[in-house]
Amino acid sequence: MNLLNDEPTGTEHEPMRAAAFRLELSMCDKFRQLREQRGWSQQDISDKLAEMGLEMHQTTVAKMEKGKRPLRVAEMFALSWVFGLPPGAVFWIPAKDDLPSSMKFMTERLASVDELQNQMRAEFLRMFESHLALYADLDSERASLVRAMRDDASMEPQQDRVAEGITQ
Question: Which residues are in the HTH cro/C1-type domain (predicted)?
């Protein structure tokens, strides 16, 4: 699969899928930049991965760097450790800005997520207030019923005595 040429097709999820492919390309590019900054060859990477127990031929490293092969999660973790980085840190390494639409998509998506969260928060508060009012009504009714039962229970012995002709 050539990630550079294979654009996802036909659903409302296409922008997210395209962004994920661009993110993967960006990650591969970051690993290439890290390799080049250290003066390592693709074979060096292959050897270092093999030392960690992950077999990846030099040609596979090349294909991955060119976007002709997807980057697997286990490989991303292993590559991060090869470069002495925690896996999550690679996401924050600045990349060449040759993928401008990914930032645009993420900015738009972030605004959309924020709006959705605000709507959900408002709906949650409305539901909470409604349920709280109902709970308060039920609690008040319960207290009245308990009070009435207590009053009736305290009156029963007197009523029994009155019925027997005993008065106090």
Answer: 31-90
User: Can you give the residue range of the structural domain that contains 136?
Assistant: 99-168
Cα separation of 25 and 47, whole Å? Answer: 22
| 21 occurs within a structural domain | yes
Q: Give the model's confidence band at 2: pLDDT under 50 very low, under 70 low, under 90 confident, else very high.
A: very low
pLDDT category, 8, cuts 50, 70, 90?
Answer: very low
CA distance 3 to 21: 7
pTM: 0.50
| pLDDT, tens only, 110-134 | 788 888 889 999 999 999 999 999 9
For residues 81 and 48, give the distance between their C-alpha atoms in angstroms, rounded to a whole number: 10
Cα 13 from Cα 79, distance rounded (Å): 29
Q: Do the beta carbons of residue 49 and residue 78 sit within 8 Å? A: yes
Cα(168)–Cα(162) distance, rounded to whole angstroms? Answer: 9
CB 28 within 8 A of CB 18: no
Give the count of domains, the chain: 2
Alpha carbon 4 to its chain centroid, in Å, reads 27
Instruction: Determine, yes or no, domain membership for 157.
Output: yes
